[in-house]
Design goal:
Blueprint: H1 5-23, H2 29-42, E1 48-57, E2 60-69
Antiparallel strand pairs: 1-2
Helix pairs in contact: 1-2
Length: 70
């Protein structure tokens, strides 16, 4: 288990680089998101995909989603 934030950051960045190396450039963003989620799963890093994030702004709520959060 990773205990230090720098170790976790290193693994997450490494996972993103691995996805880019494997897939290359030019795909839809959603393809990279799904593959990064799989790579995080392989490394045992908990994540949420399309996590709801309501934002309150001047009397109304914007309903948004965070694509990927670790």
């Amino acid at each position: 288990m990773l205990t230090h934030v720098n170790d976790l950051t290193r693994v997450i960045i490494g996972a993103a680089i691995e996805v880019h190396r494997t897939l290359g450039a030019g795909l839809l963003e959603s393809a990279y998101h799904l593959c990064l989620a799989r790579e995080l799963q392989i490394h045992g890093i908990p994540y949420k995909y399309k996590w709801p994030l309501p934002l309150d702004y001047k009397v109304f709520t914007l309903r948004r989603r965070i694509t990927l959060i670790c």
